[in-house]
Amino acid sequence: MNKLLKRIPFPVVLIIPIQIVMIFLLIFPLIVNLWVSQTNWSPLFGAGWWESKYIGLKNYYDMIFKDPRFISSVLRTSLIAAVCVTVELGLGLCYALLLVKDFFGKKVLVSILLLPMMILPLVAGYNFFMLFLDNGPINQMLSILLGKSVHIPWLSKPKLGLLTIMVADIWQWTPLMFLILMAGIASVPENQYKAAVSLGANRLQIFRMITLPLIKPVILIGVVIRGMELFKIYDLVFILTHGGPGTSTESISYYLYTAGFTYLRLGYIAAGAFITLAIFLTASYYILKPVIKEIA
Amino acid sequence: MSKRSYWEENKLLKAFRFFAIFIVVVISLFPIFWMFSTSLKPSYEWTPATPIWITKNGTLNNYQTVLLGPGRAKGGWHELVGGELTGSMEGGAGKVSLKGESALFMPLFTSLLVCGSATALSIIIGMLAAYAISRYKFGGNFFSFFILSARMFPPIAVVIPLVIMFSIVGLLDSFIGLIIAYTGFTLPFSVWMVKSFIDEVPKELEEAAIVDGMTNFQAILKVTVPLTRGGIAATALFVFIINWGEFLVAFLLSATKVITIPVLLSKYFTTVQGRLYGPQAALGIIASIPVIIFAFIIQKHLVRGLTFGAVKR
Question: Regarding predicted confidence, which is higher, B98 or B295?
Fold first, then answer.
C-alpha cells in the first residue's frame, strides 16, 4: 500500500479524497439525473426510475416553452438575487465605512452587527413572519408613526410578500457583506491614503479613486458568494409566504421542490434542475472569470 | 501618527456617524429582541391583537417544552390545546409525528454530531485539495472553477438522485448519509478559504522541513497546519454555520430517525394552533448560542477568513 502510494505523484494523492467525494456526490447524481430528466418517471406509476419510459428532450421543451410558472420563478429569483445583492453590497459598504475609524468598543459593536448571520436561516424566517404579521409589531409601529391604524397584509400580497422575503434576506446577510468589505478596506495600504491626503484629496475623492478600485476583488467575491446562495433561496420563501398567494412568490428551488414532491413529476423537475444549472453555470462563469484571475 | 488619523472629521459628522451606527444596531437587534421576548411569552400572548413588546406574565414554559419535550412540560401549550404535535410537511424521506416523548436532546445531539463531523471532514479533505492547488497549481483554473461550481447546483438537482442512490445503499435517514452530503456540499468553501491561507505560508518553510527529513505529509501537518490555524478556524466556523442552519437537504435525506434542529423546528406546529411561536423562538435562541460563542472566540480570524484570498498581505 505504502509503495503504491509512493508511485503516485504527491499532488494527485492530495486530490484523491476530494475526487472520491465529488464523483459520489456530484458526477454520479448528475448522470442519474441526466437519465431521469429524459424519462417521464414518477413514483406514482409504480415503476422504478431505471424502467421508466424514455421520452427524449420533451421535458426540457415543455419546461422552457410550456411552463410559465417555471419561467416566472426564474425571473423572480433573478430579481430577488439582483435586488438583495445590490442592497446588501450598498449597506455592507455603509457599515464598513461607518466603522473604519477605531473607537472604544468597536470590537463588541462588530460582534453585535454580525449576530444576524449567526441565527439559523429558518429561525430568521420565523422571526420575520412574526414581525410582519397583520397584527405584528411592524404594522403597530407604522400605525404609531402615521397616526392612524395600519393593517398592511405583508405576507399575503404578491409584491409585499416578495418585499418581505428580500428584507429578511437583507437583514440576515448584510453582515457577511460587511465583514468581507471591512477586511478589504482594512487592507488598503496606509501610505496610499497619506499620499492622497498630502496631494489635497478630499474624503469622497479618496474613496472613489483609492478605496473603491483597491477593494474591487473583495466586492466581486462578496457578490459571487451571495449571488450563488440567493439563486438557491428556499427557506425564507417556504416560511414567509409558502410561495403564495397562488404561485406569485415562488423561487426556482421552491417551485422545483413543489413540482417534485407534491406532484411527484421527478423526471420533469430533473430537467428543470439541468436548465437552472445551465443558467447558473453560464452566468457564474462570466462573473467568476475576473475573480479567479484575481485570487488564483 | 495613530492609525486612520487622516479621517479627520468635525463634530457634526461625528454625531451623524454615531447616530447612523445606533440605527444600524437597533435594526440588527430588533428581530433578535423580538425572538427573545416571544420565547418568554405564554401562549395567549404570541399573536394578540395588539403586539406585546415585553410580557408581564413571563414564563419559562416554552423552554421547558423545548428541553423536555411537549409531553413532560407542565402547563405548556399541549395542555391548553390537548392536541398532538404533527409534522407540517409531506414528502421527503418520511412524515414525522412528534409525540410527547421527543425532546431536544436527540436532535441537538444529531445536529452536533452531523455538523461537527461533516465540518471536520470537509476541512480535512478541503485542506488537502487546497494544498495541491496552492502549491502545485493542480488542474489550473478549470479545476478551481469545477470545485466552486459544486456550490451552484440547485440543491434539488443533486438531492433527488442522492435519495435514489442512498436508498439503494441503505444510507437514507442515517447519520453517515447526512454527513457525506454535508461534507460534499461545503467542500467548495473549505477548499477556497483554506487555499487563501496556505498561499500566505512561504513555500520555503515546507521545503526546509522536507530537507530536514520530514515526509510531504509531515511537512503539511507540522508546518502548514499550525501556521494556518486561525484561517482554518474561521473556515470551520463558516462551514459549521452553513451546516447548522441547513434545512432542505436534511429534511429530504432524513427526517424520521435522524432529525436535525432545523427539521425539528419546522415541526413545531399543531393543526389546532398553527405555528407554535413560543417554542420556536425558544429553540431559536438555544440553537443560536453555540454558533455565537464559537464566533466570538475566533472573531479576529473571522474578518480576514471570509475574503477567499482577495485580500493580500
Answer: B295
- The model carries a pTM of 0.85
**Subunit contact A118:B241, Cβ cutoff 8 A:** yes
Which CATH number characterizes residue B155's domain? Answer: 1.10.3720.10
- Complex ipTM: 0.85
What backbone torsions phi and psi does residue B269 show, to the nearest 5 degrees?
Answer: -160, 130
Nearest CA in chain A to B31: A127
How far apart are alpha carbons B136 and B288 in whole angstroms?
A: 40
Q: How many domains does chain B have?
A: 1
Q: Say if B235 falls within a structural domain.
A: yes
Residue A8: inside a domain: no
Do the domain assignments include residue A15? no
Per-residue confidence in pLDDT tens, chain A, 296 aa: 667 767 778 888 888 888 888 888 888 888 888 888 888 877 766 666 667 778 878 888 888 888 888 899 999 999 999 999 999 999 999 998 888 877 788 888 888 888 998 888 888 998 999 899 888 888 888 888 888 888 888 888 888 999 999 999 999 999 999 988 888 888 888 888 888 888 888 888 888 888 888 888 888 888 888 888 898 888 899 888 888 788 888 898 888 888 877 777 888 888 888 888 888 788 777 777 776 666 65
In a domain, B149, yes or no: yes
Residue A199's domain comprises 69-264
> In chain A, which residue's Cα lies nearest the Cα of B241?
A118
3-state DSSP assignment of residue B199: coil
β-pair type (B274-275, B269-270): antiparallel
Q: Chain A contacts of B29, Cβ < 8 Å?
A: 112, 115
Window 49-88 of A: residues touching B by CB (8 A cutoff) are 49
CATH number assigned to the domain comprising residue A126: 1.10.3720.10
Number of domains in chain A: 1
The minimal CB distance from A179 to the residues B135, B292, B302 is found for B302
C-alpha cell at A161: 410578500
Q: Which of A32, A130, A182 sits opposite B34 (nearest CB)?
A: A130
Q: Does A280 touch chain B (CB under 8 A)?
A: yes
Q: Who's near B44: CB < 8 A, 6+ residues apart? A: none
Residue B156 belongs to a domain: yes
**C-alpha angle with apex A237: A233 to A239, nearest 5 degrees?**
125
Looking at the domain assignment, is residue B47 inside a domain?
A: no
User: Which of B164, B265, B302 lies closest to A49 in CB terms?
Assistant: B164
State CA A234 to chain mean position distance. 10
